[in-house]
Amino acid sequence: MSKLTRVTKTRRGCTHQATSRPVAIEDRGASKGKTFERCELAKTLKNLGLAGYKGISLANWMCLAKVESGYNTQAIKYSSGGKSTDYGIFQINSKWWCNDGKTPKAVNGCGVSCSALLKDDITQAVACAKKIVSQLGLTAWVAWKNKCQNRDLTSYVKGCGV
Asked: Is domain 38-156 annotated with CATH 3.40.50.300?
């Protein structure tokens, strides 16, 4: 089994592979998407119930969003190896969690259109991220494991009043 296959199966397709192309932001006409400011996102995620959800600190969610999308709601990454695409602020994968209408054998575990994960209103992205964490934990995201896990993440929420 190749490393690419093994990583995909263990994380259920939540983040891009190391061989993925860089972030590409789709041009959506007048709407360019929202890139949150750090404290704005911290307050939004807290209001949407992520602070302490399943025992996960708000700082962990903030780190995840930073390393996956740079806090950008319209971040899109295509993985040619996995033949799938990661969408939105949490880079939720079309193979397992959302339907983009083009990913072969997609599961759509969150029962949501991938385009819904690109909205400035991140309510659906948060709901899907909660479902992923409920089933697999934050380790579903390889980038979180590599860049956030077991690190001091206090800077992600410092001075935000959350």
From this structure: no
